[in-house]
Amino acid sequence: MATRKKADGAPAGLRAAGTALWQRITAEYDFTTAPERLVLLEEACRCADMVERLQKIVDGAEDLRVRGSQGQPVSLPEIPELRQHRAQLMSLVKALGCPDDESDDGILTRSQIGKLGAAARWSRRG
């Protein structure tokens, strides 16, 4: 079953961060001969959307601590989720294996991975 697409070619259901990541990567790289990478890219875009949503919750929280089940202060539950989704986003972007303009080995540098992740996270902030 094929994934529905939006008018810009991005998979349906992506939010702003995911759509921005999709557009940036597909504008730079051609995945027509590697459809399995499109699956990874879609998952990375959905993960970027989740990172954006979790970050909004954390940013909007009055305090980064809440009361636990025993009344003790515990970390806001979205914080570890945010950390996990950021790590997953980086793993997915790295797994895409987009070629480096400066390297012939086809592996993204840590800097490039960071730039792609940051672009996804900050796409709505201007």
Report on this model:
This protein is 56% helix and 5% strand. The protein has one domain (16-125). It is mainly alpha-helical and 126 residues long. The longest helix has 26 residues, at 35-60. The protein is built from four helices and two strands. The protein has a two-stranded antiparallel ribbon. The N and C termini lie far apart (35 Å). Helix 1 packs antiparallel against helix 2 (35-60) and helix 3 (78-96) packs across helix 4.
Describe the protein's topology.
Layout: H1 16-28, H2 35-60, E1 65-67, E2 73-75, H3 78-96, H4 110-122
Antiparallel strand pairs: 1-2
Helix pairs in contact: 1-2, 1-4, 2-3, 2-4, 3-4
Provide the residue-averaged pLDDT.
86
Largest sheet: 2 strands, antiparallel
Number of strands: 2
Spatial strand order of the main sheet: 1-2
Radius of gyration: 17 Å
- Distance N to C terminus: 35 Å
The sequence of SSEs as H and E is HHEEHH
The number of distinct structural domains comes to 1
Beta-strand content estimate: under 5%
What fraction, in percent, of the residue positions are helical?
55-70%
Alpha-beta content class: mainly alpha
Give the overall silhouette: elongated
Task: Extract low-pLDDT stretches.
Answer: none
